[in-house]
């Protein structure tokens, strides 16, 4: 089984507000550095995204990928790769836990397997950069009050 990379951050907002930003894929280009386009292809009976196409530009890695999302309750969303030009597999999740003072602890887990050969240490470092940037962008977006 592939190793995963994870990191956590505390956001000064309620879990529902944090999940609202996570679930708003159309706005990803506004707050994530790597996502240039996001298009919801399919939704579930509650209107949540089930399949999303993302156009990514992370410097050396540019990709057009489709991800399938699974929503578990109000505090967890996970995704897996449907198709990609650059990746063999991608699995990730956001897990939200209420924290003191109405804040939310957000944990992001990510496992990526690229089609091109890459040393494990370099791949994990890249995963860590992706996670840390995403969490910092999420925190800034949620705490700014923008929807």
Automatic annotation (TrEMBL):
Domain Coenzyme Q-binding protein COQ10 START: 11-138
Protein name: SRPBCC family protein
Gene3D superfamilies (alphabetical): 3.30.530.20
Biological source species: Streptomyces adustus
SUPFAM superfamilies per UniProt: Bet v1-like
InterPro entries in alphabetical order: COQ10_START, START-like_dom_sf
């Amino acid at each position: 089984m592939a190793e995963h990379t994870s990191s956590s951050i505390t956001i000064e907002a309620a879990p529902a507000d944090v999940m609202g930003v996570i679930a708003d894929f159309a706005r990803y280009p506004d707050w994530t550095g790597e996502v240039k386009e996001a298009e919801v292809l399919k939704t579930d009976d509650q209107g949540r995204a089930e399949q999303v196409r993302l156009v990514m530009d992370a410097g050396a890695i540019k990709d057009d990928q489709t991800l399938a999302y699974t929503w578990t309750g109000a505090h967890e969303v996970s995704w897996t790769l449907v198709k990609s030009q650059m990746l063999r597999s991608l699995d990730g999740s956001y897990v939200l836990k209420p924290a003191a003072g109405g804040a939310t602890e957000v944990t992001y887990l990510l496992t990526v397997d690229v089609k091109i050969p890459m040393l494990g240490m370099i791949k994990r470092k890249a995963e860590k950069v992706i996670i840390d940037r995403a969490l910092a962008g999420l925190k800034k977006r949620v705490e700014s009050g923008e929807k």
